[in-house]
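During the reporting period, we have paired protein sequences with backbone structure tokens. One record among many follows, to show the layout:
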Amino acid sequence: MRFRHPDGTTVHLAYCTNVHPAETLDGVLTQLRDHCEPVRRRLGRDRLGVGLWLARDAARALDSDPSALRGLRTALDRRGLEVVTLNGFPYEGFGAEEVKYRVYKPDWADAERLEYTTALARVLAGLLPDDVTEGTISTLPLGWRTAWSAARAATAHSALRTLAERLDALEELTGRSVRVGLEPEPGCTVETTADALAPLAAVGHPRIGVCVDTCHLATSFEDPDTALDALAETGVPVVKSQLSAALHAEHPRLPAVREALTAFDEPRFLHQTRTLTATGLRGTDDLGEALGGSALPDTGPWRAHFHVPLHAAPAAPLTSTLPVLKAALTRLVGGPHPLTRHLEVETYTWQAPPPELRPRARAQLADGIAAELALARDLLTDLGLKELP
């Protein structure tokens, strides 16, 4: 979906396909048929943006075979779909029964992360619509914190500088500009937007910036205005933004609240949980750890890294951080000039909530994704952007 900002800029809205598990190119093509095109039809659009997640095997197949890449581009066109952004955070296995810490491997100190992201950039350059010259990729925020060291940080910064050089060469070759954004996430060495400033200064290249995920922003209790002001003041570009909402519990001390939270403690994804105290941010790596003892103070609100459907906050006594998303979006595209041109709805946890909240059939999932995109569309038009055909 495309929108015209009052300054004349085109802003793109997509939804991320990591909600549909697929490790191979055939799986991606099936996604387009079974999920993406039905969502487009529900929205009554001739064209729908999708933020593709391409696992390692799919990325390699597309990067090594020009005919396969042309075939994917043809399939996108035939189904009324377009791609301007990719999710390059998960490497493989995102549809596994247990993902948890595996999603942070390989990290940016591992050469394979550089090769994978380079392949994604080359693929994206071949997928961009004919009238679009800029693509974006979101990526792992360097690595998970526990095994990080100064030596690994130096290796990661060097890899990102090499990536930037390769992106420069790619633009010279294709005329397509691709930028990559580190996506701050709780528990990683770059947990907040503030944590991104120093490593990005070390990399020192405008092709490498930040992907602002509004669920992660909210989980870490970051104020959107403060976060985006700091990025602007230091010249760090907001490459893209993922529109998502976290799980919010206002009174975690109450038994009814803890019971409601327990229903969201599931075995597949990591649900980092945070609370803001007088001495700063406190947190656990997973929701079960927070619920299981005294690891997390319960005198103030808790927020959990659980991507809640934008249009369907959980029932009381829980809610979502949709207000944080709205505040961030206002700053991102509501001003005289957009801070980013690529927006992506990313709710990959549709099958993770309590059973009664999960879609029971493919059609229900398509209905839910379409409803999320409709909400995002309305937020954008309320900010003065005009939806384009």
Remarks:
- The first strand starts at residue 2 and ends at 4.
- Residues 150-174 form the longest helix (25 residues).
- The mean pLDDT is 97.
